[in-house]
Amino acid sequence: MITLLKKNSYIILFFIISFLMGLFILFSSEQKENTNVSIKVEQGDSIWSIAENYADSLGMSTNEVVQLIEKENKIYNKSIKTGDIITIPGLQIDNNDEFQIAYE
Predict the structure, then answer these.
(1) Mean pLDDT across the stretch 1-16?
(2) Phi and psi for 38 in degrees, rounded to 5?
(3) What is the distance between the terminal CA atoms of the chain, rounded to a whole angstrom?
(4) 38 contacts 87 by C-beta, under 8 angstroms
(5) Tens digits of per-residue pLDDT, 17-39?
(6) SS3 state at 71
(7) At what angle do helices 62-73 and 47-58 cross, to 10 degrees?
(8) What distance in Å separates the CA atoms of residue 41 and residue 7, rounded to the nearest whole number?
(9) Which residue range or ranges hold the LysM domain (predicted)?
(10) SS3 label, residue 31
(11) For the whole model, what pTM was predicted?
């Protein structure tokens, strides 16, 4: 039995460390909830201007955010009007209710 443990000590150690790391990750991470931000279109807003406001915080180019907004909101004619509700996906809210960027 002891020789078996000595021969497989690295494998046993690997499983123990993996198990402990899994427990650490499970219990140490903060609960984050994926959420979408909905904004109301104001007069003078365009998809491009809205995308510019969120591009840096999403870590994307303005053009990529435009495409994301169009896809999420099913905007096919690239036209929005005052009062429309636009959803911007990809943000997370942590326990402090502060917005943080979702991982890509």
Answers:
(1) 82
(2) -105, 130
(3) 48
(4) yes
(5) 999 998 888 777 665 555 688 88
(6) helix
(7) 110
(8) 67
(9) 37-88
(10) coil
(11) 0.55
Q: Spell 81-100 as b/e; 16+ CB within 10 A means b.
A: eeeeebebebbeeeeeeeee
For residue 82, the one-letter residue type is: T
pLDDT at 95: 46
- How many Å apart are CA 54 and CA 63, to the nearest integer? 11
H or E stretch including 86? strand 85-93
Q: Where do the structural domains in the chain lie, given as residue ranges?
A: 1-30, 33-101
Q: Give the C-alpha separation, 104 to 29, whole Å.
A: 18
So what's the architecture of 33-101 in CATH?
Answer: Roll (3.10)
The Cα–Cα gap between 82 and 26 comes to: 44
The 10s digit of each residue's pLDDT in 34-76 is 568 888 999 999 999 999 988 887 888 999 989 989 998 988 8
Best CA proximity match to 71, nearest among 47, 99, 104, 93: 47
